Fold:
Amino acid sequence: MTLTFLCDVDGVLADFLGGICGVLKERGYPDIRRERVVRWDIASCLDVPSKVIYDIAGCEGFCECLEVLPGAVALVDTLRHHGDVYFVTSPVWSARTWMFERTRWLREYFDVKPSEVVHTSAKHLVRGDVLIDDKPETINQWLLAQPGTDPYPARGVVWDQPYNRNPPWAEGVRGRVHRVRNWDQTEEVIQSMIKQRHG
Structure:
């Protein structure tokens, strides 16, 4: 049975936070360090108005210029080796060119076809066996909507970041969530699922 992997982009493959910090530094904002972002709200962690963050993300060219996070290529290669991979990514709605840039970015760095990209903030509506995301709230919603089939429940993989630790998991979800810090750990999770399915 082929596994279907759903992979987030920002914070998993693309360095969205690094891109934001880089522009803020260029604009002269003081004490801009990614280490300060220990909660999901980038603006409050960096003492910057939320509108500034949205304006930066909404600028034409911002999405396409994001750097690839270390280990991202290896992660995608690992997923492709074990199943079908779809890239489920939340667009920045204030950016008119975001979806075009995101699709082109994925094609350039990961050889992704447009048909393998799903642009939506409602990730819980997308079916799959595994969701890899850096936002615990998204994984909570997705797992509640994607129970899977017993004894092969859908699994959530949290891509570890300082801003997503110790989240409140919904009842019945905690046992189906794995936290990983690199692609080696992701491989271990996948192998455990394959072993379970094939006995």
Observations:
- Strands lie at 3-7, 83-89, 117-119, 130-133, 148-149, 152-153, 155-159, 177-180.
- DSSP finds seven helices and eight strands in the chain.
